[in-house]
Amino acid sequence: xxxxxxxxxxxxxxxxxxxxxxxxxxxxxxxxxxxxxxxxxxxxxxxxxxxxxxxxxxxxxxxxxxxxxxxxxxxxxxxxxxxxxxxxxxxxxxxxxxxxxxxxxxxxxxxxxxxxxxxxxxxxxxxxxxxxxxxxxxxxxxxxxxxxxxxxxxxxxxxxxxxxxxxxxxxxxxxxxxxxxxxxxxxxxxxxxxxxxxxxxxxxxxxxxxxxxxxxxxxxxxxxxxxxxxxxxxxxxxxxxxxxxxxxxxxxxxxxxxxxxxxxxxxxxxxxxxxxxxxxxxxxxxxxxxxxxxxxxxxxxxxxxxxxxxxxxxxxxxxxxxxxxxxxxxxxxxxxxxxxxxxxxxxxxxxxxxxxxxxxxxxxxxxxxxxxxxxxxxxxxxxxxxxxxxxxxxxxx
Length: 397
Fold this sequence. Notes:
Layout: H1 2-60, H2 67-80, E1 88-90, H3 92-99, E2 108-112, E3 119-124, H4 129-132, E4 140-144, E5 147-148, H5 155-158, E6 166-173, E7 176-183, E8 192-197, E9 200-205, H6 212-225, E10 231-234, H7 243-253, E11 264-270, E12 275-279, E13 289-293, H8 300-310, E14 315-318, E15 326-332, E16 338-347, E17 363-364, H9 369-372, H10 384-392
Parallel strand pairs: 9-10, 10-13, 13-14, 14-17
Antiparallel strand pairs: 1-16, 2-3, 3-4, 4-5, 4-6, 6-7, 8-9, 11-12, 11-16, 15-16
Helix pairs in contact: 6-7, 7-8
């Protein structure tokens, strides 16, 4: 009898467990269904307003309009309201141009002018058509082939084209406009160059991409074995580049110490809350280091300097950096257009964000636009930031 009671009790417990499990599963399913339904109806409400506006325009607007441009404008407006200065939208044609190698250009890097007057020249390749035409960093290009460059994020693509074709530009310099006709050429970017100045090694990095990491490591070793007093690494006018290129360069210079004591280099945070931390795995080099930066040092360039500064491994000379603390991703849409926006935020070894703030050098030495033209030139004695770096290394008095 006792066994029968126990069996009966066990059967009741099993039944209760099954019922309870069923209720829990049903509740969980309903919660997820309700959440999905909420998202669905929210999207319906948003799209309904959009479609209402589209239909009103189609039925009531008295002027002519391009339906395709209307849709592109809607997407562009959506991306533009993110409040993210690094975001961008490309129409199908402009995205195709962006991703294709047109082979030729004038060798000028552009950025939006601070006063919204056009696109400002941020960097010029040596021996490029832009350099030969005597364009200057800080010149504002207001027109390209007759097209206004205000708010034109595609302006850099307008400069590209077939080799030996002409592009007409209008630039604004010191309040005066000047017209240029420049022949496009195939641009070979010099991403790294080096030389010995007095008894110091000088390395200029144009961008953190391609094989710059291996070139840099080889150059550092070569200069140190040659007996230099120290190294000046110049990342002025450097727009940044790829994290996978930056990391081995820092590994070569830094040990596994740092402000957190664990070799932390850069931390990344993503939309879903996940995090990723990159650590130094190197032994570091012994030679003294000075890094040159300015307000056109962005992204990987300023994190290169910030890591060396926070590891107490280098002195930083120049100006406050540009302040880019986000990484972007590009997505192609079904109609062939493309969007780019920030998808992660990254932080220095001590946990600081450089977004909007940039990093301050240890020795701040401002430069005029004309003085910036001397960066990397054959007249280092006229480069006052470089002269300060050589003084710190004891290469000059």
